[in-house]
Amino acid sequence: MIKLSIHFTFSLFGRNRQTRKSKGKLDFCQAALNSIESLVGIRAKSTIDNYQTALRSFSSYTKRPLAIEDISPQLMEGYQRWLTEKGISLNTISCYMRSLRSLINKIQPEADSQRLFNNVFTGKERTEKRSLSIEDVSRLRQLTLPSQSSLSFARDLFLFSFYALGMPFVDIAHLRETQIKNGYIDYRRHKTGQRVCVKLEPPMLRIINRYHVAGSPYVFPILNDGDGMGMGKGYEAGRARYNHHLRHLGKLANVQRKLTSYVARHTWASTAYHSNVSLPVISKALGHSSPNTTQVYLQAIDDHSIEAANRMLIAHLMRV
User: Fold this and answer.
1) Closest CA to 80 of 50, 122, 28, 124
2) Cβ contacts of residue 56 below 8 Å, gap of 6+?
């Protein structure tokens, strides 16, 4: 799976693996891809994904083969400005920069990578609260929207994420019909590989049935043609459109916080916590790779506790 993703990255860069060079020097993107491939099976999948995403973004900025010797502090400052103008958050910029710095260190340990990244952000910005109140979610749920429109689809995906224990958008997009069995959704987190089992509650099933596309292996029309609702043509395009529609929905519902694909997940966790659902139950429901100190408790949690907790949250929302 990861190797396929790396090979797919080659096509994104638009370069031939055998011929790419930068004026006779070692091409950075090619060397970085080789380095990433050598780490498959050694480093965590989330780390590999971070490297790939950062490299894809950097290649989109440079638009040409680039030797490591061509990478300068000025180039990285320009890259940061480009990312900022595209609306990328500081924490995401930091993740890209740290990934690129790590790749440079792996390819050319003697390079002065610290100097290259001195004038760009590689720290961690304190993020604003991402969760909504249950009243905010209720207003969003009660919005009157045109049936089968892109806005109603985005609203339903947001609600489905909340109903499904805060399922991330990437896992919703890749969710397959085969992962729904005997009244449960059984999948592995795209980011961590952790298994998550979600009991299908009635509002979740209604949303699934609403967007079923005959012949598609996917539960929702995100990775295929989008079924005319403006979500198709690939994961990245689908997520961008989803976030665009969420911002519009937030204004319509008079939600003060910025709506993004992460908000439903944070909202489920926050609502569960304030409803006195125990931290180990929340951690297991979210599919987190938990610290060793909580591992004993996680193993002992009965999945029915998660089902009961989720049923309680959905019932609470429906009453508002």
Assistant:
1) 122
2) 9, 12, 13
In the chain, where do the E strands start and end?
180-181, 184-188, 195-199
| pLDDT at position 12 over 70 | no
Encode pLDDT of 25-55 as tens digits. 778 999 999 999 999 888 878 789 899 999 9
Share of the chain above pLDDT 70, in %: 82
Whose CA is closest to 165, among 138, 127, 195, 123? Answer: 195
93 contacts: CB under 8 Å, gap ≥ 6? 80, 83, 84, 120, 121
Where is pLDDT greater, at 304 or 239? 239
Q: Supply the Cα-derived Rg of the chain in whole angstroms.
A: 21
- Provide the 3-class DSSP secondary structure of residue 21: coil
* Structural contact between residues 20 and 33, judged by C-beta atoms closer than 8 angstroms: no
Task: End-to-end CA distance of the chain: give it in Å, rounded.
Answer: 43
For residue 234, count CB atoms less than 10 angstroms from its CB and return exposed for 0-12, middle for 13-18, buried for 19 or more: middle
Highest mean pLDDT pick, 37-41, 176-180, 213-217: 176-180
**Nearest Cα residue to 241 out of 232, 250, 249:** 232
Name residues whose C-beta falls within 8 Å of residue 25's C-beta, 6 or more positions apart in sequence: 67, 68, 69, 70
